[in-house]
Amino acid sequence: MKALLVTAALALGTVIPAVAETVTDWRWLEGTTWYVPTSGLPAYVYTPLTNTLISGPDQTVYTITGYRNGYFWGRTATSFNNEPATCKSLVGSVTPEGKVYLTFTNWPYTLGDIWTIGIGNMVKKNREWTMVNQMSTGGTVAQVGHWAYMLRTRQGQSSWNSLPGVNMSVPNFMQPCLASAPTVSQ
Question: How many other C-beta atoms can be found within 10 angstroms of the C-beta atom of residue 167?
Answer without folding.
Answer: 11
